Amino acid sequence: MLAAVTAHVDDERINAAFKAVATVADALGLTWQERCALLDIPRSTYHRWLLHGVKADQDKQDRIAYILGIYHLAGTAFPGAGGAKGWLTRPNPHPAFKGSRPLERMLAGRMEDLIEVFRILRGVEAIWS
To answer: At what angle do helices 32-39 and 2-28 cross, to 10 degrees?
Structure first.
């Protein structure tokens, strides 16, 4: 019985997190291809998750968590510079981005790219703390 309750809570959490990612994607003006690249899923899966809820393995759950973490950190680290959207969508001189937008790095589709963007923002947060 407890396992069923725990699974239900986890399902609710991952569904809420996915809806938050969809909201972030809307705020960033992402195309369907970009949304799917961030999550490394086909478009049909994205639509199925929107309509019927998320059935995701640990990799996809981690991607969702990193996307939300990145958006949150960017918004708190750069509130006066267009917030998260501004930081993610403007060219960035950081060596990891080589003058491109942090969002481009995230859209490469590799988990390592999400982790790197998150790591950079954690470093910025540490400086301001």
So the answer is: 140
In one-letter notation, the amino acid at residue 81 is A
Q: What is the pTM of this model?
A: 0.89
Domain parsing of the chain, residue ranges: 2-128
Which residue type is seen at 12?
E
**Which of 126, 29, 27 has its CA nearest to residue 76?**
126
Contact 73, 118 (CB under 8 A): yes
**CA–CA separation, 58 and 94 (whole Å):** 30
pLDDT band at 82 (very low <50, low <70, confident <90, very high): confident
Return d(Cα 16, Cα 45) in angstroms, integer. 16
Residue 28 contacts residue 88 (beta carbons within 8 Å): yes
